[in-house]
Amino acid sequence: MTETATRSRYQLTFVVLAVAAAAYSLLQSLVSPVLPLLETSLHTSQSTVTWVLTAYLLSASVFTPILGRIGDMIGKEKVLVGVLVALAVGSVLAALATSISVMIVARAIQGVGGGVIPLAFGIIRDEFPREKVAGAVGVIAALLAVGGGLGLVLAGPIVNALDYHWLFWIPGIVVAVAAVATHLVVPESPVRSPGRVSWTAAVLLSAWLVALLVAVSEAPSWGWGSVSVVGLLVASVVLAAAWGAVELRSAQPLVDMRMMRVPAVWTTNLVALLFGAGLYSVFAFLPEFVQTPSIAGYGFSASITESGLIVLPMSVAMFVFGVLSGPLSARFGAKTVLIAGSAVSIPSFAIMAFAHGAIWEISLAMVLLGIGFGMAFSAMSNIIVDAVPSNQTGVASGMNANIRTIGGSIGAAVMASVVTSNALPSRLPKESGYTSGFGMLAAVMLLATLAGFLIPNLRKAGRDAHQREQAELAHPELALVAAGTVVGDESE
């Protein structure tokens, strides 16, 4: 095959992967603006309807590493086709759902689509020219972030023109087309990693996440000091510890705890966990806040479309600064850009917590949040790519995205608990619930900023290594001295 044909092939593959990632990302947030509508249509409560989002994130948190491992074992292309088919089936079931229980099950099936992340990163690693891998991974990572914001914007027009069922029919059709295109266009990678899936780890991961999320979701009604809530929290800690121990002993772990020990990896993943909590909480609760009838003493009586337009500045700013993050990282270092993005996000949550008088205040918060998150998400991808060997880029990037999803599922559940802990006679949350919730997220982003300082300065480390390499090439005796020093150190 000629170089031009090869290039066209991987560019076409990238288009298909981008469509699949965008469809998965849209489904993360497309339903968020219509949660109040689903609450009414499916005859449920606000705390229960939040599980429409949480079930999706929880399922994605579990299936993402499992499907990534299966793809490495039997072939990424065929597994990606299966993932997209499952995503389409879940979309059809959600479109036909007439009860909250069926809707939650459908969303859990859609969460299987989380496998798109490691599979796409793995295909890029296997099929793309080495110099194109980092850029392609960064673009897919940006699509995952921006697509979530666009879902909030597109929900209103779709519901107004059709109805909320089409929030699932349209992505279902797109995903079905992407599945066919994947089968026809994406080559099956010859790269295989023999091994097995650690089902014990998968069960333990599911168990501790479910125990934690049920506890924080039901605490307002059961009571934080109740036997059920305390028991579930204790169980989640014990199960999480057991999961970690199993992963450390496993030859083929779902989440590579050894890689997590790399300083640049675990610190960046900690930031990703906190960012996930902030992002998905905004997806779940800002539309509900601005849609609240002003007669409640707060809110803006916004329609679904208007709530999407209020969030639109976040999506635009996230895209623009996600693109700018690369050049900024090249000039100032990805760590500096990540810390700056985290810091910019703090005042946005502070505004959402306390400034409830005018739409422009919320719009300003959205701009700041888009700037911060756009800078940070791309910088995280760059740090991970720089921190691991090239053959681990896909695994490490997928793990970072998955940890962000886990943070999102935990953050959305905790936010639901805080916001719905006190309700007005109309069953709407009190304004103080949103103040406490968004204030909590401001504190979360402060922690993310502080955690960013723990990330090693890879730019400096890389420059020092390059200088040592050049010096050893010019003066070979230096390499011998260095080798002797290492041997001496080991002998001691």
Automatic annotation (TrEMBL):
Give yes or no: UniProt keyword Transport.
yes
Keyword Transmembrane included in the entry's annotation: yes
May I ask which residue range the UniProt record assigns to the signal sequence?
Answer: none
Membrane topology for this entry?
A: Multi-pass membrane protein
Where does the chain cross the membrane? 12-31, 51-67, 79-98, 104-124, 136-160, 166-185, 197-216, 222-243, 264-286, 298-324, 336-356, 362-385, 406-424, 436-458
**Locations listed in the record:** Cell membrane
Q: SUPFAM superfamilies in the record, alphabetically?
A: MFS general substrate transporter (SSF103473)
Taking every annotated instance into account, which residue ranges of this chain make up the domain Major facilitator superfamily (MFS) profile? 13-460
Q: Which UniProt keywords apply?
A: Membrane, Transmembrane, Transmembrane helix, Transport
Instruction: Spell out the PANTHER family in the cross-references.
Output: MAJOR FACILITATOR SUPERFAMILY MULTIDRUG TRANSPORTER MFSC
Q: What is this protein called?
A: MFS transporter
Q: Which organism is it from?
A: Jatrophihabitans telluris
Upper classification of the organism? Bacteria, Bacillati, Actinomycetota, Actinomycetes, Jatrophihabitantales
